[in-house]
């Protein structure tokens, strides 16, 4: 959902050399992040990811609920960061901290987590495994409060949000270099999915929540270190 | 003795012809106001290239062209890129080391600089997107215009920019969709002393402002610190086709900033303080990351009006050149910049655009540390 990861859970993967990413995800109402009595929370999730340094990324997300545009408008927006604490080594996993700056009056999408990911390259394909922990607490801005007038609330007690609270785990298997399968426990449900990659920049994914409902994600990841067209053309003509 | 003279003369003419040919080749590749000064121990190429956002790319292209222009080897090659008909500095072709121009280089520039003869008519396609999200009744309020404008140099550093605005969509406000005059201004840019830059604009700007705007910046392009101030006296204006509505010139802004380029990863920190548009006093903090193809920034502002955070990005629009001959060039803009602020109902630390990048954003691209990191 915008960040490198599995289906609904983020991993500690870092897309080297792909500093810009665009993601679209569709989540069915039954498994939406939002829980409201009206129950029309089918989610179209848009995300832009940009890396600011080799260890820090910023994400902007818009959670649009197409069934109730008259009530929520564009939808909830949020800005969050990822920090790479450790790079993956031979016997050591990569470690990433995800952080949502406090200050929102309605931090439904907020999530703070720590996740470790390890890859295993074997003759029968590539495996990866992740283990993470999402904070069950969230800082909420007091209604009509100033910018940093905050109070700590338990996420579940706050609008019934359960997304990424507690331990989660996920694994993927890529028998070929352009696709694979994955499974995760996102702190609430078991999800399974398949994905394909094209040339390291296009990514398509379909998965099920507990085998009951289907959800989709597609993303494009690009480099920002390229030359303008005129320069590339001249270089190409020389070769 | 005679023979030697003939030889010397011959060599001299070949050099001139070579330089002439090279000028032609560079001009055809989009370089303007090109001067090639070849001496035995060093060579200098002056140029302006308006298609690219960052000068590194124009120097890279010039270097490739020079390397493939024949057997001649250029000793100690340096480039002097110009911005708005003003030389910014001298950069060595190998390491991109910056130095200021020498007296003789400045004189050579003044002799050869022909503002009318050495430039094309450069037509620029510059889109303008103003959006406001979040209103429940109409969540995506957008105003989208395409500005087709041009900048004509009339004297050293002095230029005139004008064009037409083609409105495409507007569900943001009630400005109609008739063609209208694009932001038009007289602009003067100069480096009166080394590392000191000034930019003066008089005319109509983006964000419905008109008036006078002045920027000053001290930036030694080999160093990490830079500072400057910007001020302006503007008023609101509004064009519907040919009919003009304007309010008096009564809004003064004045802000000073200090910028530091971190010694890693092309990150810069900038702190701006002063009075912003709408007499709003306060602070703005920027974190800017430069890539070869784009610039991304995060910011936070706190002023009398309120507090906000947001981000901005800038990149040159694809594909760049659309058409080019000896006299005319049609291209997409060298810098499209867009800023998003969370607080969309209060105008916190507002600013207006000039239609050209502001001085800190221009000079950041000329820093030698940035250029050498791209090698």
SSE arrangement:
The complex is a heterodimer of chains A (239) and B (375).
Chain A: E1 20-27, E2 43-53, E3 56-64, H1 69-72, E4 76-86, E5 94-99, E6 113-122, E7 125-134, E8 137-141, E9 150-154, E10 166-176, E11 179-185, E12 190-198, E13 202-209, E14 213-222, H2 229-238
Antiparallel strand pairs in A: 1-2, 1-14, 2-3, 3-4, 4-5, 5-6, 6-7, 7-10, 8-9, 10-11, 11-12, 12-13, 13-14
Chain B: H1 2-28, E1 32-38, E2 43-48, H2 55-67, E3 77-83, E4 86-87, E5 90-92, E6 98-99, H3 103-112, E7 121-133, E8 140-155, E9 158-170, E10 180-181, E11 185-193, E12 196-204, E13 209-219, E14 225-240, E15 243-246, E16 251-261, E17 267-276, E18 280-290, E19 294-303, E20 307-315, E21 321-324, E22 328-332, E23 336-341, H4 359-363, H5 368-374
Parallel strand pairs in B: 2-3, 7-22
Antiparallel strand pairs in B: 1-2, 3-4, 3-5, 5-6, 7-8, 8-9, 9-10, 9-11, 11-12, 12-13, 13-14, 14-15, 14-16, 16-17, 17-18, 18-19, 19-20, 20-23, 21-22
What's the quick description here?
With 239 residues, chain A is mainly beta.
Descriptive terms for the model:
heterodimer; A: 239 residues; mainly beta; Porin; 12-stranded antiparallel beta barrel; two-stranded antiparallel ribbon; 2 helices; 50% strand; globular; B: 375 residues; alpha+beta; GMP Synthetase, Chain A, domain 3; 2 domains; 17-stranded mixed beta sheet; 6-stranded mixed beta sheet
Would you list the SSEs of chain A in sequence order as H and E?
EEEHEEEEEEEEEEEH
Determine the structural class of chain A based on helices, strands and strand pairing. Answer: mainly beta
Q: Describe the biggest sheet of chain B?
A: 17 strands, mixed
Cα-to-Cα separation, first versus last residue of chain A:
40 Å
